[in-house]
Amino acid sequence: MLLLKDFKHKVHEGHKGFFFVYFVYFVSFVFILSACLQSSDCFREDVFCAGLVTDTLGINDHGMNQDTWAGLEEAKANGLVDQIEYIESVDTRDYEKNIAYFAENGYDVIITTGIGMRDETLRASDFYLGSVFIGMNQPYEETRPNMIPVTFAEDQMGFVAGALAARISEIQIIGAVCETSGIDSMWRYCEGFRAGAKFTDEKIKVQVIYREDGSSEKLFIDETWGYDTAQKLIQRGVDVIFAAGGGTGQGALRAAAQANVPAIGAERNQATVLAESGSSVVTSIFGRASFEVQNVIRRLKDGNISEPRLSQIKYVPLNQKFPESLTQEMDILLIGLWKGEIKTGVSFEKP
After folding, report:
1. Residue 25 has pLDDT above 60, yes or no
2. pTM for the complete prediction?
3. Cα separation, 103 vs 314, whole angstroms
4. What is the 8-class DSSP label of residue 82?
5. What is the mean pLDDT of residues 238-264?
6. What is the spatial distance between Cα 336 and Cα 351, in angstroms, rounded to a whole number?
7. CA-based nearest residue to 133, from 141, 73, 144
8. Cα–Cα distances in Å, from 140 out to 41, 134, 147, 159, 309?
9. What is the C-alpha separation between 133 and 239, in angstroms, rounded?
């Protein structure tokens, strides 16, 4: 049984020297935008501390970082955590030292967000055995006794988007603009979209376009390609657009807004992020990080850590121009997917 007290060490002997510890204190201070830490308390057995290291999108990303922090705030309000803090990473090179800051200050749980921090989190779990690491949206092939991955089912998120697109399409021609299918998560998103649309209407026409021939240097940031591809789909008659893949997907959402074509986003609340240039985004679908953070911490404190599992997903509420019955349909679909009563039929890896 995995118990929190088994991970709590008062001294990290043999790992870091005197001068390096103070170097970490100095460097990390620059990146702390929350309140001053009372780090000494976190070494106490009766004080439970949880720290969040964000990726470079920052705490107010309207997505994984913000939702994870909200979960920590709720966990503290509910008495699950005594002290919470976050560090916003300015550069990817900051990940390792930001994680080290919390570990060197006795934090029981250190949470990192996004697949871009996966390697640094795994290395830290090997080095800092006194902390438990929670990797949000970080699938791992390797396991560690102090590493808890929280992953979200991209195929299910795409499936819900496809089902919704099929329901709101007026001419039964819908499309998806996606990053390269060479990334399994992107492939799951967009093949899930196709499957969800067909689940709702077998006769619907679904056009899915991946960015297969673009430069690797523009991975997830090729807004021009996303914009141009969405325009082409709209010219072909597509009347609902789904987009996934960071900035590449956002380019497609901007094109949809200019053409006043309903669009569905992923990964973050894209309507809020894009503001006027995302005016036609009817909803965004992403992982329910706030709920999962609390759930994992509760199980951790109870010593009831089970095998990693796919976590719940959510969507931004539809606006009032859509009937309440449509929201009810989406909720029923989400429950069916969560319980396993509805299968997407999309494999975990691209064949």
Report:
1. no
2. 0.80
3. 31
4. S
5. 97
6. 25
7. 144
8. 32, 12, 10, 23, 12
9. 43
Residue whose C-alpha is closest to residue 350's, from 193, 181, 155, 192? 181
Distance from C-alpha of 250 to C-alpha of 275, rounded to nearest angstrom: 11
| Long-range pairs of 38-47 with CB within 8 A, sequence gap ≥ 24 | 38/83, 39/105, 39/106, 40/106, 41/82, 41/83, 42/83, 42/105, 42/106, 42/107, 42/108, 43/10, 43/106, 45/5, 45/8, 47/82, 47/83
DSSP state of 30: T
Two structure tokens written together for 337: 């997917």
Cβ(150)–Cβ(296) under 8 Å?
yes
Gyration radius of the chain over CA positions: 21
Taking only the tens place, the pLDDT of each residue in 29-73 is 444 434 444 445 999 999 999 999 999 999 999 999 999 999 999
Q: Yes or no: say if 193 and 164 are a contact pair by the CB < 8 Å rule.
A: no
Decide if 252 contacts 227 (C-beta within 8 A): yes
Query: What's residue 12's pLDDT?
Result: 41
Query: What mean pLDDT is predicted for residues 256-282?
Result: 95
Buried b vs exposed e over 230-243: b needs ≥16 C-beta within 10 Å? bbebbeeebbbbbb
Tokens of 222: 């090729």
Strand order in the sheet with 313-315: 205-210, 173-178, 241-244, 263-266, 281-287, 313-315
Angle between helices 324-339 and 154-168 (to 10 degrees): 150
